[in-house]
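Listing S7. Sequence submitted for prediction.
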Amino acid sequence: MDEQELARRCAQGDNAARRELYETYGSRLLALCRRYARDAAEAEDLMQDAFVKIFRVIGRFRWTRPGSLYSWMARVALNLAFDSARKRRRLGRELVEVENLAEGPAEEPGYEETLSVPTEVIQAMIAALPDGYRTVFTLYCIDELSHKEIAALLGIREKSSSASLARARASLARSIRQYLNGEGGWSSIPDKKEL
């Protein structure tokens, strides 16, 4: 069944279509939620909440091109994740204004040096970033949103998005340097359950 038909049938309340939608996109949506959640349980809750909302509002979906159904679903899930974070007031406290940056940019390790750091360690370093920095870093570097899009999505200024990305990159650079020097507790690969 193509995206348009699947969305149409879901909007009509067809449970077989809803099951197909869940089975087709559930793992991708969970992976997306995992990038913005503190742990696996929170990611699963976000994904379930996203599907509940998706099934409730899928009649609003308008197909524009192949892949637009997942893009629309991902936006629903991201909005829920950000709303949840805002309610906990974690993002607002951790995003900084560019004027408040006291430190200069950290010297980033070179490409060759970074290749020697295991993926699991890099993932743990990203997960250890403060929520606001991790969110902006993930939106910019992984989801490839612009600072303008991030600012609109999070309800912040573009300069705040840019500053938070700079802080995230500086923190990751310091963590990678510590790992390369055998310092800072990054010398052991974390348990994948923690990721």
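Caption to Listing S7: primary sequence and predicted structure tokens for the chain studied. The chain has two domains: 3-88, 94-194. The domain at 3-88 is CATH 1.10.1740.10 (Rna Polymerase Sigma Factor; Chain: A).
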